[in-house]
Amino acid sequence: MAITAPSVETVFTARQITKTYHMGEVDVQALRGVDLELYAGEFVVLLGPSGSGKSTLLNILGGLDVPSSGEVFYRDRQLTEFDDAALTRYRREHVGFVFQFYNLIPSLTARENVSLITEIARDPMKPVEALGLVGLGKRLDHFPAQMSGGEQQRVAIARAVAKRPDVLLCDEPTGALDVHTGILVLEAIQKINAELKTTTVVITHNAVIAEMADRVIHLSGGEITGVETHSRKRPASELNW
Amino acid sequence: MLIPPLDRKMFRDLWHMRGLAAAISVVMGCGIALFILSRSMLHSLELTQQTYYDRYNFADVFASIKRAPDELINRISKIPGVAIAERRIVVPVNLSVPGLDEPASGRLISVPDVGRPRLDQLYLRRGRWLTPRSDDEALASEAFVDANQLEVGDTFSAVINGRMKELQIVGVVLSPEYIYEIKPGGIVPDNRHFGVFWMNEEALSLAFDMDGAFNDLAIKLMRGANVENVIQRVDYLIEPYGGLGAFDRRDQLSHQFVDNEIEQNRNMGLFAPSIFLGVSAFLINVVMSRTINSQREQIAALKAFGYSNLEVGWHYIKGVLLIAAIALAIGIPAGAWFGWLVTRMYARLFHFPVFLFRIYPSVLVAAAGVAASAAILGAIGSVSRAVRLPPAEAMRPEPPSGFGPTILERMGIGRFVPPIALMVVRQLERHPIKTGLSTLAISLAVAVLVIGNFFQDSIDYMMNAQFHWVQRFDVSVATTDPVSDRAMYELASMPGVMRCEPTRTVSARVRAGARDRRVGIRGIEPQSTLYGLVDMDGRETPLPPHGLLISKKLAEVLDVNVGDWVEMEVLTDKRPKRRVMIAATLKDFVGLAAYMDLEELRRIMLEGQVVNGVNLEVDPAYQDALYRELKETPAISTVMVKQHSIDSFNDTIAKNLGVMKRINLIFACIIAAGVVYNSARISLSERSRELATLRVIGFTRQEISSILLGELAIVTLLAIPVGLGLGTFFAWWMCTAFDQELFRFPMVVSNRTYAWASLVVIAASAVSGLLVRRSLDHLDLVAVLKSRE
């Protein structure tokens, strides 16, 4: 298995990005000049405590948010130059999202939540196939309210990967789950990364999860405080916390 | 998958909030129903009227003459533009009707002995046509026959040429010329005491000395003929024979009333639906804001996956369009049904022989357009917020909005107010637009009730003014021809007559520049006590010693002011023409009136002490004896008993008004309940977390319901003065809109109406508030706190 190396294609390049939020009457500086490169097919964990700027960084990479300053490139295209419509197209064609609180549509079944994406994607999997990938082939017609948190999160993963995205961005995917279901979810993500070669970024404040990654990027106070590269990734099934 | 997943979401979301969606659909459905009702009724009445006129050859021009030789009709026929000119004999008569103590009056109209009339043809409802040459048979108008419960074969008596003659009703008929049968000088139909009858021409011409002559004519014009031109030429031809001036349909009394009724519906028809559609747009606004707020994260997910803003916006718009579609599904059949009912009611009221009910496709298209616009208007604000919501921001829960010190604290009384009251006030102040719209929506319910009752108030006032301030007499009689005022002594000596006052009314054309109107100029004595010149506000205007006192409306129509001079062309007797001054105007309710000092009028008419009407004050104890004598007095053509007009009015108009009031009540309750129920449900779901927290920390059910219901109570109480103001404004607006030549509505809203409107809305709000309060009792504390909003 090829370990990521500089020769591998660069998917994301971020240069000196900053982000300031105006929350009511206070300004919050979420990112303070972040430089970053992410490579094709790699599994990256963004590790850091709450408020370290992880989610902001992920949102910017996913085209959900724009930085206050700095430049972001997706392959050779500059995301920071995109207008709203271009960002929408970018997300539609290239990005898969998994959120901490799943963000499933409660009024749609598992299959329908996935087909929400396959409807608009160019070369999608069949919803059944995507749900099969995450081990939910038998719960196609259940509504979110009828599923456990882990199952809901796996539906969310199936939904994210059904479009065969180039990058899979996961924001605290196990944040709301217990260890057992959390591991099932991580296994699903790992499997996607391995089988589909999807560049995968996982946000967590759980250091254990970092052991599954090719690279771990530490964030604190809106800045990158360190990067470590693993020569051996641990399978999710071995993790425990 | 046949239905795209996003559409499934929409259907299921709607199903989830079916209570709210149903409430909105019903309110909007009411608007649509009212729209369909008013339009279909308007179109159907117009079509029915038109069809009736066409089928029965309703004439275009009419004229009365003193006595013209038959030969004249040939000359009139040759006027360019005249298609058919038909001669008739029309005479007013006094009647004695079985089962009726008091005298009634009627109008006898001749029909050819052989064949049928070519114009203003009759529809034979029951019975048979007249036997040729019979002089004791009559066809009677259905309204009269029905009102007096007469039947074919019954007889009644008419004073014909001074002799009481018995006539047998052989047929019951309808005429396009008498859709609305109103006694000359009357303001409401009194079918019991006034009827129209048709008899063979020969019989009438012998009885009224019209052999080889006629006194009335009807003209059908050719297509595209110039009416004014024809009227001018007819006038020229009939003038030597005592022509009263030809007039077209616009001045034909029955047509005027029917048109007036249709016209009123044209204006009113759009007003009520707009209130409902406005309220439903507001309800949609409230519900959509809430829905979109609670779906922030779903919206974020959709956008994160690459759904465009347009797709997200269209998704929500489709949802409200579906609500509009349900409203149409409720409103169209309901409106069609009500429209049919009301149109049939009118068709019966007007005795139309044909009844056509139509809903034009264009009306349905317009209804759909209006419903869709109201729905989109209501949703557009929150949907565009959803569309503009940046996905990353949508991911985070909405930040707590800035609360500040409320008006209570700013006023420095905050310390004395319990925290719960502060919460209520802060909540209302925090959403000023929402609070304002809720207030406005409930105030519309108040306004609907005010308007509904305003008509009653206004008509009560108008009738009271007309019957007690203006018509202070008990009985008014009119003679066929002017008689010497010695007739007054005769009347004064009749049983029960306490006081008599003479009047002299002449038909005249009043002209100011290019504008003119045919009016009856009534000469009265300046010291008259039985006829009051009273304006809308109850102020008495003295009769000016010289010149004319005219209705303000007539002054408007003629575009003249007090002090201006007009030409007065009398159309009877010696037909004098004079220039007279407008000495004063009177803001009155009914018709276009003109008054003049009796002596001055007589001078203008170049006549002595003659009268053609007398107002009587009567001792009720002797009225039966008086009626018997009046019935047998040959010179009298019309007897108007004031009490009968009042009764007839109460029987017809008041009944219809009652129905209208009940419909209004239902609609206002639907609006008030719909708004309060929606607001309560929405604030319950928005704030269930907060309320549950309060319960957990020890607040009682009573306390937390007072937070929720307190808001609604404040909004309702705020809405009442606003609604009363709005209602008053709408009432004023309607008075302006209904300012017509036939009627003007006085702007009167009684305190009872205000109180009634307020109480009904408070009650409707209370009931729907309590309905929602029940769900507060079932608040699942644990579940609410665990769920993440």
From TrEMBL, chain A:
Claim: Metal-binding is one of the keywords in the record: no
Record's keyword terms, sorted: ATP-binding, Nucleotide-binding, Transport
Gene Ontology CC annotation, any one: membrane protein complex
Entry-linked Pfam families: ABC_tran
ABC transporter domain span: 12-239
UniProt-listed InterPro entries: AAA+_ATPase, ABC_transporter-like_ATP-bd, ABC_transporter-like_CS, MacB-like_ATP-bd, P-loop_NTPase
GO MF, any single term: transmembrane transporter activity
Family recorded in the similarity comment: Belongs to the ABC transporter superfamily. Macrolide exporter (TC 3.A.1.122) family.
Name of this protein: Putative ABC transporter ATP-binding protein
Organism classification: Bacteria, Pseudomonadati, Planctomycetota, Planctomycetia, Pirellulales
TrEMBL record, chain B:
Membrane topology field: Multi-pass membrane protein
Parts of the chain that traverse the membrane: 20-37, 270-288, 320-342, 363-387, 437-455, 665-684, 705-733, 753-772
GO cellular component, one term: plasma membrane protein complex
MacB-like periplasmic core domain residues: 439-630
Claim: Lipoprotein is one of the keywords in the record: yes
UniProt keyword annotations, A-Z: Cell membrane, Lipoprotein, Membrane, Transmembrane, Transmembrane helix
Any single biological process term in GO: lipoprotein localization to outer membrane
Subcellular localization: Cell membrane
InterPro entries documented for this protein: ABC3_permease_C (IPR003838), Lipoprotein-release_system (IPR051447), MacB_PCD (IPR025857)
Main location, first listed in the record: membrane
Protein name: Lipoprotein-releasing system transmembrane protein LolE
